[in-house]
Amino acid sequence: MKITTWNINSVRLRIDLVKKFLTQEDPDVLCLQEIKCLEDNFPAKALHEAGYEHHAISGQAGYHGVAIVSRLPLKKIEKREFCAKGDCRHVAASLPGGVRIHNFYVPSGGDEPDPKTNDKFAHKLDFLEEMAEWFAELGPRSKSVLVGDLNVAPFEHDVWSHKQLLKVVSHTPVEVEKLGKVVDAHGWIDVARELIPEPEKLYTWWSYRARDWKKSNRGRRLDHIWVSPALRKPALFGGPSAYTIHEDARGWERPSDHAPVSLKLDL
Hints:
alpha+beta, Deoxyribonuclease I, Chain A, 14 strands
């Protein structure tokens, strides 16, 4: 089973890129973040025509929003609200074989990494705390996959300069600590770093502000695929080649600033 996560930064604006990716890479399940539309405006017809007939959508007009599109049936669709904000940042569904997938878009946190002066940063920290509390309730036999734009680059070589980004939102020690609590709450396995350990650099996001993003390569690993302990063997069985950051998609015309990330589960 091939699962892909991608912050698409407006699914309607970039539906042609989505179709191109589906044709080229042929995932079984595609999880999108920042779809930026209500369910009624989601480009379902185009995805049906591409062979992805099953959809789980939590949409919001102009902001946020997440969706799971699949060639496989989706059951037990769940949309969880975090921090009582009314934001659409989570959707979950069960796949054949008993695998449950959670798709997240964690708040970016604004520019100032101080929860006392920046409400957006405080919201981000609260969101991560609530994630940890929720996933602490999952049982040890849970066959779960967590994907999405988590907006935290946790390790030193998940950013282009650890030293220069220690006080930049997405790589601050407090964010890394909070994300670590989410990991520990269920014993989640960060597949990327299990298969491709530090100190190898891994990036999934490159700013639009860079004149030549590829040449400067000032990236961050903000997009994640985690699996529960029960799926450790299927996730790691294929070795490093089972995990792919589709960096070429960042160079397509009018791209998202995030690259798609895929994992092949040996189920």
